[in-house]
Amino acid sequence: MIIIRRIYDPEKPGEHYKVLIDRLWPRGISKEKAGWDEWMKEISPSTELRKWFHHDPSRWGEFKKLYEKELSQNQNELGKLVNPC
Fold first, then answer.
1. By CB atoms within 10 Å of each CB, which of 1, 9, 21, 31 scores lowest?
2. Within a domain: 37
3. pTM of whole model > 0.85?
4. pLDDT category, 2, cuts 50, 70, 90?
């Protein structure tokens, strides 16, 4: 089962292996204190895409398409998330 949450949210029951998918490490949280098992910035949206989106809800549909395209070009890293063994 995959649970999606923000790093700032409290841990939920059943979480075993936690992976942060973000280009930048979140402010105010040390890597030690966060307790996440892996940081996969390689499969997060590119810096250019993040800057273009700029949290604009009107760009969400296009952002999703562009991010899916980026993910399709990074199958090796994505495969590690889907099948970590």
1. 1
2. no
3. no
4. confident
